[in-house]
């Protein structure tokens, strides 16, 4: 366990490095407010912290930088409550007063304001479609041969696609089919809709609609497998502006990662509640070994259904980002609950 002096100096080094992105020397630390030790004393303590693995010394500099072990200790033991700035409060005021009429708009706006507040790349991972249930089904004819099917899940996902209407099928038949499916399938798991229709409803459908054989193709289009995840990102270029990624190889590796939604999703999935902080090598992909991810679950009806979070360098302002994510995750959950209470 670190002594109080070691904790104070480790905090001072990390706090300065987060702001400057430059190795921190003992003289700089000794001049910080609240540090009442001489530069020589600070230098000795920093040497001890380096030997213990909390600091590192780049070979080109006499100053020290935090190690990932140092950041981990800082996050777990040294963070102070985040004090909101006037600029942050003004941005949050804009967030609260902005009208959001549907779930996807709320997701995009929340993502955007999170990126604006943190100045890092942000993401919202939507609910798993496979774990959702059908809340609403609608088929909107566009003309005699095309229509749009709209599926709405109980976790806020809206999926729509253009479908081809079989020749000879009337609009009234489509309406009867829609009413039947809506009545019988609402509340059923999205992943089992097709199975239910084929195994349980086929005979009943034949009695309720004309041209059943022609409508089977329409059903296939409506009930085809839906994407399992929805990933929304904002501020992707912000992380590339950080000094850590001036290295071409690091930048290329990170860019390749950011272009692969499946890899991002695999990294962000979590069943844990509350704020999660993964630093550097705690992330299992090589491309983000110089990054930290701070994330939190958001809820619908008290159940965690998706993830909201930030991707930045290990030299990120952890206290600030954690404070912002805690607030936005709670408010985003309240907004989603309000949408579903109002039937949106």
UniProtKB/TrEMBL annotation:
Negative regulator of class I heat shock genes (grpE-dnaK-dnaJ and groELS operons). Prevents heat-shock induction of these operons. Residues 104-322 form the Heat-inducible transcription repressor HrcA C-terminal domain. Pfam families: HrcA. GO terms for biological process: negative regulation of DNA-templated transcription. This is Heat-inducible transcription repressor HrcA. Keywords: Repressor, Stress response, Transcription, Transcription regulation. Belongs to the HrcA family.
């Amino acid at each position: 366990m670190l002594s109080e002096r070691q904790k104070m100096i480790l905090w001072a080094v990390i706090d300065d490095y987060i702001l400057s992105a430059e190795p921190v020397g003992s003289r700089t630390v000794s001049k910080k407010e609240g540090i009442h030790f001489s530069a020589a004393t600070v230098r000795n303590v920093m040497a001890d912290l380096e030997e213990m693995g909390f600091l590192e010394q780049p070979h080109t500099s006499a100053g020290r930088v935090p190690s990932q072990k140092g950041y981990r200790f800082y996050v777990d033991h040294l963070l102070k409550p985040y004090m909101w700035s006037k600029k942050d409060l003004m941005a949050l005021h804009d967030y609260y007063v902005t009208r959001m009429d549907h779930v996807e708009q709320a997701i995009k706006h929340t993502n955007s304001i999170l990126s604006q507040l943190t100045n890092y790349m942000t993401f919202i991972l939507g609910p798993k479609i496979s774990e959702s249930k059908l809340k609403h089904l609608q088929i909107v004819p566009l003309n005699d041969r095309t229509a749009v099917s709209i599926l709405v899940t109980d976790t806020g996902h809206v999926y729509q696609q253009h479908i081809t209407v079989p020749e000879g099928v009337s609009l009234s038949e489509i309406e009867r089919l829609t009413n039947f499916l809506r009545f019988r399938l609402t509340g059923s798991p999205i992943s089992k809709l097709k199975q239910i229709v084929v195994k349980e409803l086929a005979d009943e459908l034949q009695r309720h609609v004309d041209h059943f054989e022609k409508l089977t193709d329409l059903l296939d289009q409506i009930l085809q497998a839906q994407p399992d995840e929805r990933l929304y990102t904002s501020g992707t270029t912000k992380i590339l502006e950080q000094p850590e990624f001036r290295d071409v190889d690091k930048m290329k590796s990170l860019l390749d990662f950011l272009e692969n939604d499946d890899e991002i999703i695999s990294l962000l999935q979590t069943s844990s509640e509350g704020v999660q902080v993964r630093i550097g090598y705690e992330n299992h992909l090589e491309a983000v070994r110089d990054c930290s991810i701070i994330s939190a679950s958001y809820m619908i009806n008290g159940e965690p259904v998706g993830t909201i979070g930030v991707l930045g360098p290990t030299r990120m302002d952890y206290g600030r980002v954690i404070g912002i994510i805690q607030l936005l995750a709670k408010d985003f959950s309240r907004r989603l609950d309000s949408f579903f209470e109002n039937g949106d």
